[in-house]
Design goal:
Radius of gyration: 17 Å
Distance between the termini: 41 Å
Number of strands: 8
Helix content: 25-40%
Structural class: alpha/beta
Strand content: 15-25%
Shape: globular
Number of helices: 11
């Protein structure tokens, strides 16, 4: 199976767990451990999620809260890349108001079904969930004011295509405002792979400098990467031990180098 099929299967299973009353985890922890997961835990304030269906909250596999960090204005059009159970789409739809619109794009049928169910339960009408891949966005050029995403771009095997597509569909002056996992500094390849499996289920996190280079190559300007959560070895110890990895041995190589970050950029006017 290639990376895309592995991601599709993993996130489809996560959606099905929510349907059967469980919750989804970012990593390999059992559902009962998700509440303490340092990646997905406490990303949203109770005031944000209180009016949303529980299924949207339980299905969140993000590493940040892009809707809180991105400036969204009334009447704008927002696109969420890899929208999962729909939490960020529904929050965005509320923020842009009835004259605005929020799209969610996902390739997983189970997540799309869950998101549409959550939308119906929420009564939010200015949202729409589209089936497709983030490397080939099914929207026209210059049609979106803001692109958000929550710990999904790191899952793509072709990040250059994702960023080119994001640039294409943004209007001139449009904003790229995503939460994602990034690496700061050098980490041995085999160690990085193990940490990525913990950090993002099936991840391919970029170095922060590489992320900036790819955004610039796609045409973006005013690029900023702001750490929002830095993961230390204690955060990953349980997962690494379960994988047969000596956490104490690799601690100096990874401690503080994996982080969730808010990535901002602008499409020139």
């Amino acid at each position: 199976m290639d990376i895309k099929e592995v991601v599709k299967e993993k996130y489809g299973q996560a959606a099905l767990r929510v349907h059967t009353g469980g919750s989804s985890c970012c990593g390999s922890a059992a559902s009962s451990q998700c509440g303490a997961d340092p990646i997905t835990h406490n990303l949203y304030a109770a005031g944000e999620t209180g009016a949303l269906p529980q299924g949207a909250v339980l299905a969140s596999l993000g590493c940040g809260n892009p809707t809180a960090l991105a400036k969204l204005n009334s009447g704008e059009t927002v696109l969420d890349l890899g929208s999962g159970g729909g939490i960020d789409v529904l929050l965005s739809a509320k923020r842009v108001g009835p004259t605005g619109r929020a799209y969610g794009l996902d390739m997983t049928d189970e997540m799309l079904a869950l998101a549409r169910e959550n939308q119906k339960r929420s009564g939010i009408e200015n949202a729409e969930f589209l089936k497709g891949e983030i490397e080939n966005i099914p929207l026209p050029d210059d049609s979106v004011d803001v692109i958000i995403s929550n710990c999904v771009i790191n899952l793509s095997a072709d990040k250059d295509s994702v960023l080119r597509e994001a640039f294409r569909v943004l209007k001139p002056g449009g904003r790229f405002a995503v939460s994602d996992v990034v690496v700061h500094g050098d980490v041995p390849a085999e160690v990085q792979r193990s940490m990525e499996l913990w950090v993002g289920c099936i991840a391919g996190a970029l170095k922060d400098s590489e992320y900036q280079e790819k955004l610039a190559r796609a045409g973006f300007e005013n690029i900023e990467i702001e750490p929002t959560r830095v993961y230390n070895i204690e955060d990953a110890r349980q997962f690494l031990s379960a994988e047969g990895i000596d956490a104490d041995k690799i601690a100096p190589l990874v401690d503080g180098k994996f982080m969730s970050a808010f990535v901002r950029a602008l499409k020139p006017v």
